[in-house]
Amino acid sequence: MRLPRTLALLATLLTLGCRKPPYTPPETPMPPNTTLLSQMMRQLSSQPGFTDALIHQLDSGGKKGPALLTPKLLTELRNRILGKDWSGLDRFPGWTMREINPTVRVVGHFAGKDQKLEAASAVHPGTPISAAQAQTAAQYLDLGPYSLDKAETVALDTPSTLPPFTTDGIVTKIGNDIIRGDGPNALAPEHADSQRLADILNRLAANQLQGAQTFAVSVAHVPPAATPASKADRAVFHELFPDSKSLSASTPDQLITLLQQTGHTVTVNDARYFANFAHLHYKGDDVMAPFWINTGLKVPDSHGRPLLVPVSHAELEWHIHGPHLNADISYYFGIDGKSEWRTMDTLDQAWVLKRDAHAYTGKQAVEATRLASLLTIAYMHLHQKHPALPFGGYYALGVCQDGVSAIEHALTGTTTLYPNTADESFFTDSRDAEINSLFRIIPKDRDGHAPGPERIFGSLPVPAAKGAEPFAAITIPGLSADLNATYTAWQQGKLEGQHDWRVYIFWAVAIVLAMLAAVVSSVSKRDRLNRN
Hints:
There is one protein chain. A hairpin with a 7-residue loop joins strand 11 and strand 12 (306-310). The chain contains 17 helices and 16 strands. It is α+β, with helices and mostly antiparallel strands.
């Protein structure tokens, strides 16, 4: 065989040898009463109009997680369903952060800026609430029965008059035995008290908005047994609450201190779940619908297959129980564009799991509350200054992880969540200097670089157990095996990135051989022409 053909053949064989074998995600085992999204779509996608109707429902948004379905992602979802790409649907979308970023930026580019709205958001100290501010608050901060332009004091030790839990507005029958939305969980009986507390904390935070009238919360008395025992704690307590017979708070962190000192237990948990981008139920079963991203790491012994993981939802959860109040509420920046306290009494599907990465009590619970309050105000300022951002600023201003990451770093000195997407160029308002500083510190994942493994595994809703299968508790088919292998390799110092140095050498050799084959072929052809 002539040399040029030999070199070309070697280059071709090298290229073919580098091709990854196709991967079909397993469909079993599954948790009880759960079906894959692909299995549901196999049965229903052939019905005329069904796929478009379902995608329209999904486009209406959801409660949790960084599962922002941009127009390009919705088109990709539709194409996989209509193309019967069931394996692809089971790992939807499976893109890197670098691939997801442009789908958001394009929308942001066309949204542009509204100079009139931005000018209307400008405020001056001492001025009353403007129409623009009131509109922003109405859209991006749930205050319940309270308003920014009314000064009042609410007694917390009186029963809540808010309605009990209802599925109205959160559960929808789509047809074909499909329901979207989730019913009540074990915390639903507390709904009236929890909703009132969420509204109160949001309104207390809003005291810091320019022009907002003072809002306060009172508790009628202090149980004698709850008076701080130490002299130092008593001094702080009496400084905050000089009249022990009629206590009041005008900031969220002051309210938490008041509750702690009046016989209530207060725990703030940093909770992580798998995000459920669909919240569907089919024939009574939960529909497993995680939103997958490519981490940039490689699964060991998989011929270079990338590690895909479902994105997680992160939130801070306040659990408060005592003589005046029993309530459980959460805080996060959601796809509705709101960074606020919320109720947390809808039922999560079993496969999303849950892990409390941190539990803050005492002074840390107070500090977590203070920082969450500052986040609320920072996001209100951002909405006022950039009202034309698409998706309520979700993704450009961060996802649910960003705020939790910032508070985690402030309280522990570490960041264990992935991905964070906030564009820190937005965080420049001098009124929010502390939040701006925290957002500059936490790692970002907008450029698509592989994150540290500690953040990938730290985001998971289960802890790494000891033994050969540290993530056996995860019930999504195929995921625990990939995580077990990757985690073990990381612990042993053998973890490879997506762009391992051997891959670069492999392709360099192939390219050199191809170029050499082309040169030799050209020289041989020229020599033949000269002889003729």
